[in-house]
Records
---
Amino acid sequence: MLFIVIILILITHATIVGQWLSRFIRLSASETNHKSETVGNDEIEPLTVIVACKNEAHRLEVFLKGLARQTTSAAEIIVVDDNSTDSTLQVARLLSKQSQLKISVIANKESGKKAAIRTGIKNAQTKWVITTDADVICPEKWLESMGLCISSHADGKVGAIAGPVRIMNGGIESIDYAAMMGWAASTSLNGKTAMASAANLAIRVDLYPRNEQMHSEIESGDDVFAVHGIIENGNKVFWSHEFNSCVDTHPAESLAHLLSQRFRWGSKAKYYTHNGALITSIWVAFVAATQIVILLLFLTRFASLTEILMLWFGRAAIDIIFTKNVTKWYRIRTTAIDWLILSIIYPFQVPAVFIFGLINKPKWK
């Protein structure tokens, strides 16, 4: 009986992940064809860059130098300081005076990243803004690529364009995050993208969700709730699947920081209004929990070694086939040991993220 249950789980998982892979490949093909047809024909949408930051004094100068090297300049850069306890506000003001870029510096009168982003959006003079973080590294064609993607999706109901984000230096954290990005990209073909990162998210100012849709009661979710709110309001969110649109961000500074980040992500799941995101979250948690249950049954001699190996490595093989395609697109270097470690720790990570994320109150900084 247990053998049949495992086979059914693996077949279902392979079907679900296979759909992600099929859509990811279709997205890559459609973006390549679309790019060849539209290069030189589309105008680049002017963008205001909004940087909500807290205690980022040591990173602002490098970040702004990256924006100064863009092939297409930002219409304006709005730095919103969210009650930093370091010299972020003073450094931002000094850099704004020294830079040839148009930089506005605003102190967030409220508290939290969501309020800081909303403040930036309210002060923007362009139709579209793009949110990012002070710790990202932007390629020279980032704004050009995102602006062209916006222009190519001229539908009046397009409320946002999600851009890809890559964690630098490779390794299991980079692979794990790329898998999430790949899944999010695979959901975007019909304009109902399930997830995005505020480190690279272009938003149409007049379609930004209402305050209550952003769940101001929790500090996390400035990106995913914005995407879900735009879709809930009858608009579309597409994906910029072009490598020049991808920004790099730093890996977690420590294990504690990594776990805190994952718990913050898990805390958002219970608020999801996007069916695809909710169903995927439940399924991934169910498979991981089942793996742990089968492991316990094996340790208590109610399951065989064959059954536990079939479920663990069967699921890992299915996930690796999908993630290998994603990491190749992201140009992330991987090793066999990375995949082995992920296959072992992932089933424990997922339930922990959901359980602790749901019971803990997340904080931005």
---
Amino acid sequence: MLGPQSSLVMYDEEFQRISQLLEKLLRESNSKVIFLVDKNGQLIAASGETANLDTTSLASLTAGNIAATGGLAKLIGEKEFSILFHEGEKDNIHISIVGGRVILVVIFDQRSSLGLVRLRVKKASNDLATVFEDLARRSQEQSSSSSSSSPFAEITDDDIDNLFN
């Protein structure tokens, strides 16, 4: 299960980096669809054949799946199951937790293999984790600099009381 975290602000630069990494993973793994989902089930980015998919439902069900298997893991004494795999008649789903922050979903068919997907996901996960570390650092820097330069930073509770009395 993903641990608690403050919500990150997504900047365009990082979103572009994430999109490029998903496109690269899609090509190199010969997959159909790639999704990146946050721990709350919100779709962050997608790549591939998404036109006929309910991306909102897929994102939220994936997060629920991770939460449910996190509960199973705890019952048997594991911290989490960081990789899940579902095999279907035509399509397969590979789900992995990236950097403890987000969920990477790869949907693939017979044009690819589980081995190839796992290999490519491992590399992409490292690259994505780096992007999210940069994003967390940038968000932290923004929040610390904006709080000190906020026009409301100097207002005290006494100032507010005096205003309304």
---
Amino acid sequence: MLKGEGLWFRYGAKLPWVVQDQAIAIIPGEVVGLMAPSGYGKTTLAKLLAGYLRPTQGRVTLDEQPLPSRGYCPVQLVFQNPELSVNPRWRIDRILREGHPPPQHILDTLGIHPGWLTRYPHELSGGELQRVAIARVLNRQTRYLIADEMTAMLDANTQALIWQVVLDFARHYHVGIIAISHDQPLLTRICQGHTIKRLNASKSVSLTKA
């Protein structure tokens, strides 16, 4: 289980709390939608769960242990802005090989062309780089995927294609997914009867069914 308990976070001692007493847990194979308007701390909570930030109070555990501090983390986060998900100094082929290489059929389905592999991130468009950022985490070492508005910058047809690939991968490899968005129709489609959690600015998330 990936679990966040009693999470509080702020970016400075005199600044307001960005995350206040939040708790969330997800098991392998589960799809959880996390919904809130802009400014409610969704991205900060995602960074806490993926180990990008340490909570001011509370803890995040993976199978009751702290997240690993070295190597490829089993909890992977894909941002809305793909530049945040990849190392700008690496070529695309190295980015895709950071964990266990994704299966070739995933690269093909996502439309990742062989000619991209020798390029650097800045040489791809935003949509192309987002496909790379998503493909990078669809490998055997990823156990949990946190998708923070992952497809918000893409058109509806591309969104549908990417989510189908991600959900098929998650079902096959029993990967847990936290999908973060303010778009309830999208979360309803991808959760398909799993849980949607509405993030409250001052209390723990409340549970409703999609």
---
Amino acid sequence: MHQHLYEPDHEDFRQLCRQFLAREAVPHHDEWERAGIVDRDVWRKAGAAGLLGMDVDAEYGGGGQRDFRYNAVLDEEIVGAGLTGLGFGLHNDVVAPYLTELTTPDQRKRWLPGFCSGELITAIAMTEPGAGSDLAGVRTTAVRDGDEYVINGQKTFITNGEHADLVIVVAKTDPDRGARGVSLIVVERGAPGFTRGRRLDKVGLKGNDTAELFFDDCRVPVDNLIGTENRGFYHLMGNLPRERLSIAVSAVAACERMLALTLAYARDRKAFGQPIGEFQHNRFLLAELDTEVTIARTFVNHCVTEYNAGRLTAVDAAKAKWWTTELQNKVADRCVQLHGGYGYMREYPIARAWLDSRIQTIYGGTTEIMKEIIGRSLGL
């Protein structure tokens, strides 16, 4: 399915990713899921192996490859190994462009070497208890006081929230201007007035630390502004297509994995004297899912190519995001059904895949918001 997208260098990188994950992540995954957080050590090991900051310039210790296919390969391998909650995708796919494209040379020197080595784990804080899809509705404020910003507010559902040493906080610097008064400000671990709440108890993605963040007269230097003051909303809009593409890549990889697990089960499990896959209903169902997953893979590969060429539109990213994640939930549901009672047992990979799939249509922009973006593009 991949042959039209990847070249030999990407397949070499895939082997590196696969071996790294099998050695450093898979044996610890159950333990991390029980703890609700991965061991920080895996981040440093990933940095040393070249799995962080693939598209960051080599002078900062990055891979120097401005090619999203490397990101996609790592995302696929993480899903393929049955790993969830590593948080690498958020760091590499979502946060990286803010720190490479919107920063000053001084900020890049401060932050990018640690970003690539795994010493500096990152997060982005958009969602609040009262504002999710409506980014213009954020209530967190950042008021200028001399050469500092004073930040007040709270964020929730923040991926990597507990581990993060650097959080890009979406805050209102000019509350009267709505979306035109939003800025992006970096808050670092140890900033006065910055605290973290409880580890959130999620349905799936158990190994990923998802936290509440609190800012109580939190002071950070004005030098921690990234991009332009009051232009944060536009910076976010510019980078959200990449985040949505990353989610779509993982969604298709998850569909492929769930289908492979279920095909193996359908050939093996017998009922009424024959493998369950030989019943016409089941065979047709698997044929249908296989077709839809192939079509999804083809469109996502096209979107990766378009992104690399600088042509991926917000509308196509929205199409990819909603379609692939809704398909992922459909595949998960049907595959659990085909596994029967075993599909409901957490020790079976399909059960975990089903639990981990549910968030995909929600974060990174809900299906409804994606359809809104597409609908508006149609002049409606």
